[in-house]
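Students often ask what a 'structure token' actually looks like in practice. Rather than answer in the abstract, let us consider Cysteine hydrolase, a protein of 186 residues. Its sequence is given first.
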Amino acid sequence: MIRKTALLVIDAQTGIIEDPSNGPVHNPAGLIQTIQHVLTEARQRSIPVLYVQDLDVAEAGEEAFAIHPAIAPLPDEPVVLKRATDSFHGTTLHEQLQANGINHLVIVGCKTEYCIDSACRKATTLGYDVTLVRDGHSTSDSAVLSGEQIIAHHNTCLHGLGNLEPFILVRHSQENVFEPTHDSYR
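Now compare that with the structural description of the same chain:
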């Protein structure tokens, strides 16, 4: 099967990455650097980039609501607005991906245990193979686990998780994440 890839940047908003009320996400500078690297690779390869922006982070127009300026979309890159943790629920994301023939998603962004987890899992039930960038997602500490522990846990439990045929691979940003290797495991 021929794979057509898109990069999905989820909730990489200033109010999440730098959130002073809940503490910033784990290693915010490293997260931004990784997402910048992945964005550069995608854009150089003409891979479609789509952003998802959470409407519940802050009011539109506020700095906290904005996608972090260091990793902001280019004018031609679509931004999908959502209210649920699931980036596909009540949005046009699936339709936009289908219209472009996408069947492999590379995912980066925030927050690991909520929106990243939900998007990865839902994508597989919609027929997408997923590559989650190991060092390209983050979250803040919870009452039970540090952000670093949550990230490590999800990297472990999501790697290899599948629904029917499509499944998730977790790969480091220094690998060729845009070249899906899923078929070599089938």
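One point worth highlighting: The helical segments are 14-17, 28-44, 93-99, 112-125, 147-158. Ask yourself how you might have guessed this from the sequence alone, and why that guess would often be unreliable.
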